[in-house]
């Protein structure tokens, strides 16, 4: 059986820990010690990396020293031993994993889609780093709004039941912005209540699903008239296209 659990790191990062039959992998280890502690003496089989930011890569060197394991990720990153690119397929823990380029937050950003066969059919697990967040999306440090919007649209087209494992606990702040952008969305209001109650008990709000994101995440809802009007009130022209809506919302969120 596959289990996926978060290892908290820094203030609000999650290092995702995948385990099946005693084989362990981690995604985006920004620091090594929390991983070493979580493994409690067991071997690490490998590391997956989504993008080059230090809070996702800072633990690679120490973990490799400790476990001598392969590192899969963008080839330009120090310590990556198995370079990945858009369209690649690898096998992980006996499951196929599809590699998708999702530039925008950074230009090297990859998302990894693991396809688990369960007794009920296929279950998809998406590791999307800082591209798609629960209720939001990453800042545009390197890419253009066009690139990021195309990347998010690619993720939004995955099956709605796909589980979304992003790399930060930003959900509540993201949803508060979403509510400012789309106050009339009742599904969003319910999600905020549920998220507030989880956070009040210091619980993790992830994974979410693509279906939940499509219903509540403004950055996947740029085609909705309410968000288009909202974008026009925040600097976009009248009747903006979806990319212009996205760019205007993202800019507003940067200063929210
Ligand atoms: Zn980042």
UniProtKB/TrEMBL annotation:
Binding site for Zn(2+) 1: 51, 53, 105, 130
Stored Pfam families: HAGH_C, Lactamase_B
GO aspect biological process, one term: methylglyoxal catabolic process to D-lactate via S-lactoyl-glutathione
Pathway participation: Secondary metabolite metabolism; methylglyoxal degradation; (R)-lactate from methylglyoxal: step 2/2
Enzyme Commission number(s) of this protein: 3.1.2.6
Cofactor binding mode and count: Binds 2 Zn(2+) ions per subunit.
Record-linked InterPro entries: Clx_II_MBL, Glyoxalase_II_hydrolase, HAGH_C, Hydroxyacylglutathione_Hdrlase, Metallo-B-lactamas, RibonucZ/Hydroxyglut_hydro
Gene3D superfamilies named among the record's database cross-references: Ribonuclease Z/Hydroxyacylglutathione hydrolase-like
GO molecular function: hydroxyacylglutathione hydrolase activity; metal ion binding
Residues engaged in binding Zn(2+) 2: 55-56, 130, 168
Domain Metallo-beta-lactamase: 12-168
The name this protein goes by in its record: Hydroxyacylglutathione hydrolase
């Amino acid at each position: 059986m596959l289990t996926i659990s978060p290892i908290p790191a820094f203030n609000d990062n999650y290092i995702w820990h995948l385990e099946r039959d005693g084989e362990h992998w981690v995604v985006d280890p920004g620091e090594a010690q929390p991983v070493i502690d979580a493994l409690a003496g067991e071997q690490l089989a490998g590391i997956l990396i989504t993008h080059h930011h230090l809070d996702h890569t800072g633990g690679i060197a120490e973990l490799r020293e400790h476990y001598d394991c392969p590192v899969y990720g963008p080839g330009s990153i120090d310590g990556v031993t198995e370079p990945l690119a858009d369209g690649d397929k690898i096998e992980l823990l006996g499951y196929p994993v599809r590699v998708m380029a999702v530039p925008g937050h950074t230009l090297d950003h990859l998302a990894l889609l693991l396809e688990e066969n369960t007794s009920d059919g296929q279950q998809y697990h998406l590791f999307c780093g800082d591209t798609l967040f629960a209720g939001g999306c990453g800042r545009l440090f390197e890419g253009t709004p066009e690139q990021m919007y195309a990347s998010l649209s690619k993720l939004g087209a995955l099956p709605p039941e796909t589980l979304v494992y992003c790399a930060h606990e930003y959900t509540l702040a993201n949803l508060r912005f979403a509510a400012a952008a789309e106050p009339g969305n009742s599904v969003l209001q319910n999600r905020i209540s549920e998220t507030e109650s989880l956070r009040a008990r210091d619980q993790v709000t992830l994974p979410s699903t693509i279906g939940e994101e499509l219903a509540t995440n403004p950055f996947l809802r740029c085609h909705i008239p309410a968000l288009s009007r909202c974008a026009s009130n925040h600097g976009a022209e009248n009747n903006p296209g979806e990319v212009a809506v996205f760019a205007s919302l993202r800019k507003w969120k940067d200063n929210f």
